[in-house]
Amino acid sequence: MAQPSAESTYLGKMPAGFGMIAALHGDLDTGDGVGKVYYRQDASPATLRQAAEQINRAFPEDDEVEPEHAVVVTWVDVASRQHHDHSRGDGLEKQRNSFQLVIASAETTSYAILLYPRKGMQFASTAVGGSSQAMQAGFSKGLVKYLVFSTRQGPYYRITTERETSVRALAEETNSGKRGVWVYEIGTSPYFTSVAPGEVTDLPPDTGLESRVSEEATSKRYPGGGQQVTYSPYEPEEEVYLHTVQYQPQVVVVDDGDINVDVFSYNSETCANNRNKCSTFADCKDYASGYCCHCRPGYYGNGIQCVSEGKPQRMNGKVNGRVYVGNSPSPVEFNSNDLHSYVVANDGRAYVAISTIPARLGPSLQPLSALGGVIGWAFALEQPGYKNGFSIIGGEFTCQAEVTFLPAQEKLTIKQVFSGIDEHDHLVVSTTLEGRVPEVLRGSTVQIEPYSEIYQYSSNLITSSSTRDYTVSLDDGSAETRTYQWRQTITFQSCPNDEAARAVLPTQMLSVDQVFVMYDSNNELIRYAMSNKIGDVNGEKEENSCFTGRHGCDTNAVCRPEQGTQFTCQCAAGFTGDGRSCYDIDECREIPLACGEHSVCNNQPGTFRCECNDGYQFASDGHTCIVDRPVDHCAAGSHDCDITERAHCSYSGGSSYICSCLPGFQGHGRVCQGNERTKSQCETHRDRLLGSTEYGPQPVPGQYVPTCDSQGAYEASQCHGSIGHCWCVDRNGLEIPGTRTGPGRGRPLCIEQGPTVRPAVGPTPRPDVYPLPPGTHLLFAQSGRIEFVPLEGYNMKKTEAKTVLHLPEKVIIGVAYDCVEKMVYWTDITSPSISKANLQGGGAIPVIRSDLESPEGIAIDHLGRTLFWTDSMKDRIEVASLDGTKRRVLIDTNLVNPRAIIVDPVNGNMYWADWNRDAPKIETSAMDGTNRRVLVKDDLGLPNGLTYDPQSSQLCWADAGTHMIECMNPVQGDRRKAMGAIQYPFGITSHGKNIYYTDWRRDAVIMVDRQAGTETDVFLPQKQTRLYGITTAYAQCPSGKNYCAVNNGGCTHLCLATPRGRSCLCPNNALGVSCVESEGGQVLRWRERGAGIEVEREGGRY
């Protein structure tokens, strides 16, 4: 922890040399037991609402602000040290001030709210050296870098002056419309460089002050520059607990009558208003000082998170690190590596796997089974009278550990942040490694001896330490034993209101044995496995099988001890069976109206989840679905698009809106990245004339400054505001002769010049290749190229059609679009291969180049980040991750000529067409290939194309044999003709009320009104050759979600949506890879191979 600066470096100095928000800057004294400083984080609705009232009152002309977080700091009865020491000699003793600072943050803006006492400032000066100076208030950024090796004072803002009257005015005046309350905007993301004061300096009429300022206080204000006041020691009403950290003072809440702290004081909350903060499987109970949540029988946890007793627990997360190995001068760095863990809760066995660990580091991480140690502690098998970590603190905590390797004293820091249970009932963890580890040579194996670790428990803090031995066996048969010391601290937030809940044994012992570690260099995987028990520090052993873990109960069952060594197995909540074999209960099917009106029930292993239909949202109770009233989030500023410098928000009706990245940026609109383009000629010209001051750009009065469009080009018409003249300019900003108009005659009509250079896209730069502009487009394949036609509403803007990708000598069959990363994917039968390219620029990127013969149809699950395709020569349907890894065959039977394929990721369905001339058919299955069935087999000819409209739930196909387009609802089976008498359709896509298809005979893209059944427009590309696949490139991803959209659905490898949830599948080449497979939530297999261990679970049993 950094040491604070010496007082001499900042007392009496504003600005100081370091960053500072000074509510009242001076030498304040809290050493007499009376003065105190308190702080807290606060995101309660009441506090945020009150902060919003102060901010919005101070800035009445701005859009309303809704803070998301607040930090409250309160100084109570603090004295100036000179007064406490009687050094001033004016006879004033124990003069004290109370004041408060609130930092309230919205998504992109932060505000400082300063509140000063109702009865005025009791003192206004402070001792500095041997003199007395006025106290100060303001903001300072401190020293900032200047040139290469020097610094200079950064921006600052002073609220007070050198005079004491300015300090006393803090309690008398305002900039927010409320006496003694001052509000400042202190920065807008990403630039925190300026301070803007509130704009309301007028005070309300004095008639409203009686409730705030007593007559006595008013009449006695500032006699002789101060006020004689008698203070009693402050006694807090209630204590608020934060995450405990080292050096943290006591944290309490202030509600002092002499300061307007009631605006931001903490009020005791009750279950009536907070029941929804408890777990679904917990009850809320009120206490004298507040409420607490308690897990119901059959569940365990801290009440905020509860999990079913006996149910296996899964964890997922990311690992980041910067680790030096041995004496290496350069570290091994890694980011966002996957961590997956699986714990058999009823026997304490934990498995952990971390992917993509380089071979340079992997062997040396083998001794650190401790990476899974805290996971083992959280779900350790409990001995009688003892509790594992999750039972005590739930799933939100931070673990920081320091590992010291002996004898060379290498040190490694491990920080693991557990952020609770996600919507899949998986624990989420983020891990960071930093430091140095001794080298373990490649090919060496590591054996870790069983060890014990004492955990010491106190309020909001748990500590442990141990010494661990491990043996490194080298390739030559030699071995050496090494040691490291382990110290860890776990911080968490407990419920302070229930004294009984704190009755945790002060010490417990974690016993760890059967430790297995292995680094798989071929797959860059490191795996740990261990058995964990929590119990008595003396290590007393229990003979009952429930406490040894050798009971044979199903992994979804809890072992119930009985007399002596007897026990029974009982299926966990949400499962049924005899305890030896347990099966998931489908609550959605077996419990009528499990979810209320306007909602959908989704079954999950051991439980179920309700989700509101489109157009509805959960009410404040967290259960009832109510109408989602239309809100123009773009106008209200409540959208989640990226900042206006990088993205644009477009209102699309109802409460919907579309986020799109501006030119020069890439992404899905909510996050836009890319190369920040260099300034254009116009922007350079403009910024040079504007200049720059510490207050921002300031034009010289009377000077002409050019205007630039959103892409940096000169606007076609330019005006000089001071003289009233306007004129047209060319692309270089030069005036076009004869176009100038005089004052009062308006702007001339100028021809847009367009940008000077268009960036080329594609593997072969060509002058006729263009990046995809913002908006929704049609993408279609045509003889070695992919082209786009912009859509305006549902109509084709044919004059703006361009080539977006040039791929000579390729025959592109299928095209698909990933709306998240703005990538187009295509199949090529000449290579054969599957490739992709970014439509904002760049060449073709191979995705899959092996084991293909004739890839044709292609589809993207933008939620689950997977790719599906058909191969009409291999007669199969496959899936893979978007980078081509984790490849798996889903269907390879009863296929003859599969071509078109589409997916409905929100509902978990997959559809494909087989144009087998002898028996054409259209089939469907879940996206994992299960529940396969034929949808249409009669009256088909050559069904070439498929499209699905999620808004109308219509599946439509184009048939080159029957010369028709037909549609149906796959659930209802109401087949109908949408368009007849067409010629030879190949690809088909839809957008809103329209269908668009490519036709081989007409060499055109044809638009059809699906509802009217009429052809409404035709686009003929400039090059008249055969057209193949077509797809819609949406400006904004379609609404909806599935269980694979968050954290890969908790799967170790492939996550594939199904109508009932999702399946976790292993790739076909998963041998040697740690992988968990499940279907419908039921675990089928966990594989760990190597070093003499292989664990494989089938049919719900280990």
List its salient traits.
NIDO_dom; globular; 74 strands; Growth_fac_rcpt_cys_sf; mainly beta; 1102 residues; signal
Overview of the molecule:
The protein has 1102 residues and is mainly beta. Helices cover 6% and strands 41% of the residues. It has 11 helices and 74 strands. The longest helix has 14 residues, at 45-58. It starts with 19 loop residues before the first strand and ends in a 15-residue tail after the last strand.
- Could you tell me the radius of gyration in angstroms? 34 Å
Q: What's the total helix number?
A: 11
- Shape by Cα distribution: globular
Strand arrangement in the largest pleated sheet: 19-20-21-31-30-27-28-29-23-24-25
List the helices and strands and how they pair.
Elements: E1 20-25, E2 28-29, E3 36-42, H1 45-58, E4 69-80, H2 81-84, E5 96-105, E6 109-115, E7 125-128, E8 131-134, E9 136-140, E10 143-146, E11 150-153, E12 156-158, H3 164-172, E13 181-188, E14 196-197, H4 215-219, H5 271-274, E15 282-287, E16 290-295, E17 299-301, E18 306-308, E19 313-325, E20 332-344, E21 349-354, H6 373-378, E22 381-382, H7 389-393, E23 396-406, E24 410-421, E25 427-437, E26 445-448, E27 451-458, E28 461-473, E29 479-492, E30 507-520, E31 525-535, H8 545-548, E32 557-561, E33 567-571, E34 575-577, E35 582-584, H9 587-590, E36 599-604, E37 607-612, E38 616-618, E39 625-627, H10 633-636, E40 647-651, E41 657-661, E42 666-667, E43 672-673, H11 681-690, E44 717-720, E45 725-728, E46 777-782, E47 785-792, E48 795-796, E49 802-806, E50 812-818, E51 823-828, E52 833-838, E53 845-848, E54 855-861, E55 866-871, E56 876-881, E57 888-891, E58 898-904, E59 909-914, E60 921-926, E61 933-936, E62 943-949, E63 954-959, E64 964-968, E65 976-979, E66 985-991, E67 994-999, E68 1004-1009, E69 1014-1019, ...
Parallel strand pairs: 19-25, 22-31
Antiparallel strand pairs: 1-9, 2-4, 3-4, 4-5, 5-6, 6-13, 7-8, 9-12, 10-11, 13-14, 15-16, 17-18, 19-20, 20-21, 21-31, 23-24, 23-29, 24-25, 26-28, 27-28, 27-30, 28-29, 30-31, 32-33, 34-35, 36-37, 38-39, 40-41, 42-43, 44-45, 46-47, 46-70, 47-48, 47-49, 50-51, 51-52, 52-53, 54-55, 55-56, 56-57, ...
Subcellular location: Secreted, Extracellular space, Extracellular matrix, Basement membrane
Protein name: Nidogen 1
Domain Thyroglobulin type-1: 679-750
